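Lab meeting prep.
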Amino acid sequence: MNAKVLQAFKILMMDMTIIKEQLAELSRGADEILPDGGLEDKLKLGRKLNVYVGFDPTAPDLHLGHTVVINKMRQFQDFGHNVVFLIGDFTGLIGDPSGRNVTRPPLTRDEIDANANTYKEQAFKILDPDKTVVDFNSRWLMELGSPGLIKLAARYTVARMLERDDFAKRLATGQPIAIHELLYPLAQAYDAVTLKADVQMGGTDQKFNLLVGRHIQQSFDMEPQIALTVPLLEGLDGEQKMSKSYGNYIGITEPANEMFGKLMSISDELMWRYFELLSFRPLEDIASLQQEVVDGKNPRDVKYELAIEITTRFHNQSLAKLAKEEFISRFQQGAMPEHMRDISISSKNGELGILNLLKEAGLVTSNSEAARMIEAGAVKLDGERVLERGLHLKKGTTHVYQVGKRKFARVTLK
């Protein structure tokens, strides 16, 4: 083998090593990458890939559930690819039907603009602002106009659209589907066309939309994008996806003490899910922590490591350490047991009064006893004394309740 051939072989092997490294990291935590082998083929093109995620500004704040896919965007950035943080200010006017059993109420233009501004600020807590393109899909979707929208709609069939699980379920149960909802996947697909996307990412509830994007790109004689979906992070209740509407979320702008305390409130089982989807630690490290717990290490001590890592990411290490010290002061020095019952209780109309909650949790025998204990100052919620008998807790929340000196329970309201 002559020197030139040997050098070319070395370069080829080096390139394959880089591709394998990228593929392993980008696949971590992914639910699906479609089609199979597609991402590796894209990486073998030897150029920067165009990667984007769309965020409809439906609420003023991002939460940890949003960061699962934003973390993946950062990985693409670190490997040198082009990343677009797309704000769906046009698609937000339609309302994404994903995961909905009723038509989503439309947002006003002012609501969308206000939410979009906060999204941009919060996303840069993870993304590199110098390597991120922030764009708005109203820029091309408004210009599309009615004639363009009709031509776009002609590229997809009603039958294919009604294959969507959300729509199929609503049809089966007699729930109405508004015509404008059928336009949402098409509008999102046109984003992929305009951005010349190589990779589009989203939660598992976005799979249909991402695949429509592939179809529409092909209809424009484009090489179709890779659809990469990530799992939907469960909220504090460990059941429903993290959502502000469910009240089970951790906002990335919450004070360090609140963020740390909420992370410590999750169940020991859910902790590993958060490690997998939110932690930047190598998978080998997480596996070692799991083995340590199996061997007898207190899960609480491992949860401290998770809470410190996440709180540091959105604040700083000093505030994270202070939050831990305050947590220990409030809970451990208050003689809170290391292990306590985890209880799930069903709510009515999305909330439950404190008296009924304490009774159903088995911390008191009756509502009247609960009232007496509150009046005596013997009831605490997350270490803080409860003063109001009329307090109502919201569905999707998880808190530690204490009655007297020895009765404790971690209660999730479903």
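Slide two material, second protein:
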Amino acid sequence: MAQKTIAGVNLEVTDEGFLVDSSQWTEEIAKELAKEEGIELTDKHFAVLNFIRENADAGLTIRKVGKSGIVDIKGFYELFPGGPLKLSSKIAGIAKPTSCV
């Protein structure tokens, strides 16, 4: 584990940059994490991030996010290019989902 200062807060993160303690997450931290990934967060991003945070213990998958009614799978990939579930989970401040490599 490593220490990292994000949005002025000293946080413990994993080797891949996921927050160790998700209760320390704030929207400001999310904005900084997204900025590091080249993403500027919109209201749609935050709707997805809040869905992910609310369902973190439910075995998240790309399909579940796509069926959330917030965004379809194509839209999910557009909001979080590359590995959308891994990237969005990191920005949402939750642990890396087990379905992500």
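Talking points for slide two:
DSSP finds five helices and two strands in the chain.
Residues 43-54 form the longest helix (12 residues).
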